[in-house]
Amino acid sequence: MAKYNDLNPKEWKKYSDIYTDTLWLIDKRDNSGVHSGAYHGNFVPQIPNQLLKRYTKKGDWILDPFMGSGTSIIEAQRLGRNSIGIELQQEVAKEAHQRVIIEKNEICSGRICIGDSRTFDVQQILNKEMINNVQFVIFHPPYWDIIKFSDNPNDLSNSNSLDEFLNNFGDVIDNTCKYLEKNRYCALVIGDKYANGEIVPLGFYCMNLFIKRDYKLKAIIVKNFEDTKGKSNQKAIWRYRALASDFYIFKHEYIMVFKKVK
Ligand SMILES: C[S@@+](CC[C@H](N)C(=O)[O-])C[C@H]1O[C@@H](n2cnc3c(N)ncnc32)[C@H](O)[C@@H]1O
User: Fold this and answer.
1) Which CATH number fits domain 31-259: 3.40.50.720, 3.40.47.10, 3.40.50.10260, 3.40.50.150?
2) What is the pTM for the complete model shown?
3) Is the CB of 154 under 6 A from ligand 1?
4) Cβ(96) to ligand 1 under 6 A?
5) Ligand 1 centroid vs 208 CA: distance in angstroms?
């Protein structure tokens, strides 16, 4: 049995729900229980669900430094994993807390913290929980300025340049992954952006931040995304613009998995 999950490869036929390919086509978000698609910029629960089943065991600790509406905390609770979420915006964190406690799982802890993940004192939370490290970190940062999440200058979506965004994200990696147990995994969920007539490959720039820090790249998964309601009304106009110009309309984002080996 692998040391980082509860799967038994000999019983591989039992795991038809677990993806093993690098193309994830998810046609409908899981809206069960307290999950809700209402937070603009959230990810589908299937992403943390798949990653947690594959890279963690029951009782492990998960850290989400860009918690948003708490999707990964809810999934961690459902799967019997302990979790810590950090979110910059107090109101967003409070709202997440309201939903997380509705599905409270008595056998694990779902802790929600408010703060800037570049500088947040994670050690103090680990001390309170009497643990030394976490076994998985899931990063779903702003895709730079594609969605402006707040007016707070510490919000990564308010970074003034690509370099500033990457420096800020690097600071979050350093401040959180130092608590990731050796030989365990972290994942990045991110999309690219288009500006001034060219693609800004945020996914690959961010991937390099991990590689520079000696993390082993384990997966580059391409996941489809469906249009938000607002965008789907504009489908025809975007199709017209694409045909009249030289670009393709983004329909995918990346999920990258890294292993901490040092
Ligand atoms: C892409 S969203 C994450 C959504 C989340 N996965 C969900 O399902 O709701 C990014 C989040 O990061 C938060 N954020 C931005 N800068 C931050 C920082 N420096 N520290 C902590 N959170 C930050 C934003 O407020 C936003 O809620």
Assistant:
1) 3.40.50.150
2) 0.97
3) yes
4) no
5) 21
**pLDDT tens digits, one per residue of 18-70:** 999 999 999 999 999 999 999 999 999 999 999 999 999 999 999 999 999 99
Three-point CA angle 50, 30, 43, nearest 5°: 65
**pLDDT grade for 234, boundaries at 50, 70 and 90:** confident
What SS3 string covers 172-235?
A: HHHHHHCCEEEEEEEEEEECCEEECCEEECHHHHHHHHHHHCCCEEEEEEEEECCCCHHHHHCH
CA dist 100 → 9, 28, 36, 134, 166 (Å): 32, 22, 12, 20, 30
Residue with tokens 């409270």: 104
